[in-house]
């Protein structure tokens, strides 16, 4: 096993040295594709985009809900409700990213936060909507 690790390190070292020689000789910059384990699947890419859109909109709504701008100020509870629901949606999208569309099971240790905060965001959203804040 130790011999395998040393052989692997030697191969990596040789590849780095070879790339450095190409760069020093003025060859084009060498760009390696990431290994398969580091590539995002189409599902992960899609839901990362959805998550980020939800986060940006939720953040904007939270900011609007705190400003004293007429007539927006009178709807602060609805703005917070929608922001929290979008935040819960962002956590849902994060769950789908972490599980690669439910194809992986990272385990509760990694999934506890998105599960817990997703549910709490829904509860907080309805709390603001119903005026129980």
List keywords for this structure.
133 residues, mainly alpha, single chain
Low-pLDDT stretches:
none
Described by its quaternary structure, the protein is single chain
How many helices does DSSP assign? Answer: 4
Give the SSE order as H and E letters: HHHH
Gyration radius from CA atoms, angstroms: 23 Å
End-to-end CA span: 59 Å
Total beta-strand segments: 0
Look at the structure and give the mean pLDDT: 84
The secondary structure category is mainly alpha
- Strand-residue fraction? under 5%
In one word, what is the shape? elongated
Question: What's the story with the biggest beta sheet?
Answer: none
Write the layout of secondary structure elements.
Layout lengths: L1 H23 L17 H25 L9 H23 L9 H23 L3
Helix pairs in contact: 2-3, 3-4
What does this structure look like?
Helix content is 71%, strand content 0%. Helix 2 packs antiparallel against helix 3. The termini are far apart. The longest helix has 25 residues. The protein has 4 helices and no strands. It is mostly helical.
Summarize the structure.
With 133 residues, the protein is mostly helical.
